[in-house]
Amino acid sequence: MAAGLIGFAVGRKGGRPALETRFACERVERAERYFERYASVAIGVGAFATIPEGYELLSIASGVLGLDFQLVSRETAHENRSALSPR
């Protein structure tokens, strides 16, 4: 959960340059489209990304794009609880 919230803070403070220096423009634009369409679902699904860079991209993008902090923290916590619960 902490990693997702740190990514959010980096995006909020660093703005778009925080994304563009780390990720290709195509990936940044794709993340923007995901957030436009799916918002909180993108954060939740990102927590289960098999590639850590995918979650990093979505976490930072959530801050850059100005998503609500409570929404981000709620979805991040929800996905972390789901991942830790016994199956």
Distance between the termini: 20 Å
Reading the helices and strands in chain order gives: HHHHHH
Structural class: mainly alpha
- Largest sheet data: none
Rg (C-alpha, Å): 12 Å
Number of discrete domains: 1
Mean pLDDT: 77
Helix proportion:
over 70%
- Number of strand segments: 0
Our estimate of the beta-strand percent is: under 5%
Number of helical elements = 6
Stretches where pLDDT is under 50 for at least 5 consecutive residues are 82-87
State the shape: globular
Q: What is this entry, summarized?
A:
This protein has 87 residues and is an all-alpha fold.
Features:
single chain; 87 residues; 6 helices; 0% strand; globular
Provide structural commentary.
This protein is mainly alpha-helical and 87 residues long. It has helices at residues 2-14, 16-20, 25-38, 40-46, 52-64, 69-84. It has one domain. The chain has 6 helices and no strands. The chain is globular and about 30 Å long. The two termini are 20 Å apart. Residues 82-87 have low confidence and may be disordered.
Strand and helix map with partners:
Elements: H1 2-14, H2 16-20, H3 25-38, H4 40-46, H5 52-64, H6 69-84
